[in-house]
Design brief:
Distance between the termini: 29 Å
Low-confidence stretches: 1-21
Structural class: alpha+beta
CATH architecture of the largest domain: 4-Layer Sandwich
Strand content: 25-35%
Helix content: 25-40%
Number of helices: 13
Largest sheet: 7 strands, antiparallel
CATH superfamily of the largest domain: Aminohydrolase, N-terminal nucleophile (Ntn) domain
Radius of gyration: 22 Å
Strand order of the largest sheet: 3-2-4-1-10-9-11
Number of strands: 20
CATH topology of the largest domain: Glutamine Phosphoribosylpyrophosphate, subunit 1, domain 1
Mean pLDDT: 88
CATH class of the largest domain: Alpha Beta
Length: 418
């Protein structure tokens, strides 16, 4: 169950705070294609969803092989490694941890031999909240305590069932948020929780199928978007084609933060383009919270669409007042507070000649701990801005998230003090 201190319950060992994942997943079934390379490029497109570790599992029909390590996708994989990962189906994972645990053991995909003789590899975006009761029913063979390893062990624990049949037993017992891609030697699977908290989309290649966290990843590998994996749906893809089953009644409750922050602006979720949604949010923000000012600037890059919408609606000129260092990771997803604060100073620098002597409206996508906004106000005032007005394009975050986003304790959430 969720705990009031805000720490997610993904880690099954109460003695240590473990990793809580909200990541990027990718899967491909495509005989005749270089599936490891397709997965690499798919993960590259999803790099914004996780920067701490990456992994790919492949199968040629005779066995499942996993290669994973800490680092960015381009750091983990090189040409010889990808060339060695041969097969016709693959899954991949780009990970960030929300409370720590940046270790090789916590990288995904997880892998486990099943009691029926097959091997299962699994990648997960989300977080389960009933891990304690699930853990009592299974003995994780690799000693891992993550919910991802737990689900893999559950799927592997039915000697008389196929993986697909086992999934139809296991998935209804899971509570929380999950978008899974998993595989055995011959079949690619995808599943999404009944609420559809995290996105998962199905795409078509000329010679196969693709599943990914975001439509942008499908675009980049040349796949056409077919549809979203529906909440409560299990998909299986093999030589017999694509099969779909319902393991739960759909009750869609998608995560707002996918639109606000997590997803790429060129992704479409629920039929709505993320960029267009963010621009419209900015327009509404200008109507609800107007201010007299000389310039609207975004916190790049995630605040840019909303800032454009705010400027268009308010009539205040739009411009660039903060320069972003593109080689610094997103401050929201760094695993420690010290690194977050350092990251803000490394990440943004004011354009003094632009902001000096002006009343500035700064539009950002969200305010969680408030570290970014405090630093920006200080930097802009030191650079000569006459006034600094902060406008946030999402509702106040006042409660921890137990479904895979790094909102920690209530005390850390700045909206509780406003």
């Amino acid at each position: 169950m969720p705990r009031g201190d805000g720490r997610l319950s993904q880690d099954l060992d109460p003695g240590r705070p473990g990793p809580q994942d909200a990541c990027g997943v990718f899967g491909v079934w495509a005989p005749g294609e270089e599936v490891a390379k397709l997965t690499y490029f798919g993960l590259y497109a999803l790099q914004h969803r996780g920067q701490e570790a990456a992994g790919i599992a492949v199968s040629d029909g005779s066995g499942v092989v996993v290669y994973k390590d800490l680092g960015l996708v381009a750091q983990v994989f090189d040409e010889p490694t990808l060339a060695s990962l041969r097969g016709y189906l693959a899954i991949g994972h780009a990970r960030y941890s929300t409370t720590g645990g940046s270790t090789w053991e916590n990288a995904q995909p997880t892998i486990q031999a099943s009691d029926s003789g097959t091997t299962i590899a699994l990648a997960h975006n989300g977080n389960l909240v009933n891990t304690s009761e699930l853990a009592a029913t299974v003995d994780s063979k690799d000693g891992s305590t993550s919910d991802t390893a737990l689900v893999t062990a559950l799927l592997a624990g039915y000697p008389d069932l196929s993986v697909e049949e086992a999934a139809m037993r296991v998935l209804p017992t899971l509570r929380g948020a999950f978008s899974f891609v998993f595989m055995d030697e011959n079949t690619l699977y995808a599943a999404r929780d009944a609420n559809g908290v995290r996105p998962l989309v199905l795409g078509r290649l000329e010679r196969g199928w693709v599943v990914a966290s975001e439509t942008a990843a499908l675009d980049i590998v040349g796949a056409s978007v077919v549809r979203e994996v529906e909440p409560g749906e299990l998909i299986a893809i093999d030589d017999d084609g694509l099969r779909s089953q319902r393991f739960a009644v759909p009750d869609p409750k998608g995560c707002l933060f996918e639109y606000v922050y997590l997803a790429r602006p060129d992704t479409t979720i629920g039929g709505r383009n993320v960029y267009a949604t963010r621009v419209e949010i900015g327009r509404r923000l200008a109507r609800e919270h107007p201010v007299e000012a000389d310039l609207v600037i975004p916190v790049p890059e995630s605040g840019t669409p909303a800032a454009i919408g705010y400027a268009e609606e308010s009539g205040i000129p739009y411009g660039s007042g903060l320069v972003k260092n593109a080689y610094v990771g997103r401050t929201f997803i760094q695993p420690s507070q010290t690194i977050r604060q350092l990251g803000i100073r490394l990440k943004l620098n004011p354009l003094r000649q632009i902001v000096r002597g002006k009343r500035i409206v700064v539009v950002d996508d969200s305010i969680v701990r408030g570290n970014t906004q405090r630093a920006i106000i200080r930097m802009l005032r030191e650079s000569g801005a006459l006034e600094v007005h902060i406008r946030i394009s999402s509702p106040p975050v006042k409660w921890p998230c137990f479904y895979g986003i790094d909102f920690a304790t209530r005390a850390e959430l700045v909206a509780n003090g406003l």
